[in-house]
UniProtKB/TrEMBL annotation:
CDD domains: ABC_DR_subfamily_A. GO terms for molecular function: ATP binding; ATP hydrolysis activity. SUPFAM superfamilies: P-loop containing nucleoside triphosphate hydrolases. Transmembrane segments: none annotated. This is ATP-binding cassette domain-containing protein. Residues 6-235 form the ABC transporter domain. Keywords: ATP-binding, Nucleotide-binding, Transport.
Amino acid sequence: MSDTILDISGLTKVYPGGLKALDDVSLQIRQGEIFALLGPNGAGKTTLIGAVCGLVRPTAGSISAFGFDMAKDWRQGRSRIGLVPQELSTDMFEPVIRAVSYSRGLFGLAPDKARIEEILRALSLWDKRNDRIMTLSGGMKRRVLIAKALAHDPDLLFLDEPTAGVDVELRKGMWQLIGDMRARGVTVILTTHYIEEAEEMADRVGIINQGKLLMVDDKHAMMNRLGRTEAHITLAQALPALPESLAHFPVEIEDGGLSLCYRGGDGTGKGKAEVAELTKALIGAGIDFTGIDTRESSLEDIFVSLLDAKEDAA
């Protein structure tokens, strides 16, 4: 793929003691996309990021970034990668502007006060530039980490749980910031527990669990293929059994016969059409109902169902 900037092949990491944090993971990241990596705690998300950024030595497999073999030419590849770690690890006694400027210098770049100011202003940190990091709120500290990661103008940015510990308002501001980064041509890979972030921003989604990459797909394609429609129909009178005329619908009696639950469709609109047919069939059978509550699967529903299926298979 000509626009692939990160190529991970057969990546495996086994820690002393036998814990397999990554199990034969292969993944290609395209230039300019926002890719969300979803998975529960301990799934291997942070280990994968660490392997790409040179913080974790893989047991097997290969990583190529911007055409550089990260096992041999890691300096050239790493110089184009930014990392915002999950933990708030930075010198808390440093003023904001000094910490961000120092991060730029770590990559051998000449000082650029104008660029540092631009980054700090974009992150609403300019007014805090002379404040010690320890005096900032949790959300502002998170923004300092992003500023440090952007200081050397990376082409690929890893965000490991970027909105962990920040309130809803700051989280939405962070979403906007990530969108702005992509608009400037930065490729973004983020891990998150907040699946609505992936649903809001990501172009593609990968789901990882127990070190294995379960699925990678375009977000909308995944939701269309794996999504479902669920409808709860409240009946006017209890139904003792499902009539023969409704037997071909994927519907079950619940609440002691006082409601019907439909679960079906395929994410393409088939479910909504089938619910409409179901209501016509109810009317035709003389079954009165007082309400219908219909919802489509979210990305979170798909995520949970995939993890449940993985556990059942195990």
